[in-house]
Amino acid sequence: QVQLVESGGGLVQAGGSLNLSCAASGRTFSIASLGWVRQAPGKERESVAAISRTGGITYYAESVKGRFTISRDNAKNTVYLRMPSLKPEDTAVYYCAANRATMVTRADGVDYWGKGTLVTVSS
Question: Distance between CA 96 and CA 81 in Å, rounded?
Fold first, then answer.
């Protein structure tokens, strides 16, 4: 079992920045990939970014590519998401996610979920 706890969400104006973090605990040695999945009200869940165990492979959704940056600190069992230049369409609940064997590039099939942290971007 793996536990994921997110933090860093909040309310910002368009163009502002937020930095999310997710602390993993439990059987963290079994995690092959950590990532971030977001869901806006009335919309489907979307994988935003993912990173491999070593950090050598990353994935970004087209909607955030070039803006967001995912990173991880294995010593702290923590994954981060740097979110500059936020847009109103980025408003969503952001969930930390982990997979045992694959990259977190899809919202379906995720093995472990955090409770989510709300990001609200006003225009």
Answer: 10
Find residue 2's DSSP bridge partners. Answer: 26
What is the residue-wise DSSP string for the chain? -EEEEEE--EEEETT--EEEEEEEEESGGG-SEEEEEEE-TTS--EEEEEEETTS--EEE-TTTTTT-EEEEETTTTEEEEEE-S--GGG-EEEEEEEESSS-S-SSTT-SEE---EEEEEE-
Asked if 35 and 103 touch (Cβ cutoff 8 Å), the reply is: yes
CB atoms within 10 A of CB 26: 14
Q: How far is CA 91 from CA 2, 78, 103, in A?
A: 27, 23, 24
Collect the ranges in the chain with pLDDT lower than 50: none
Q: Round to whole Å and give the CA distance between 121 and 18.
A: 10
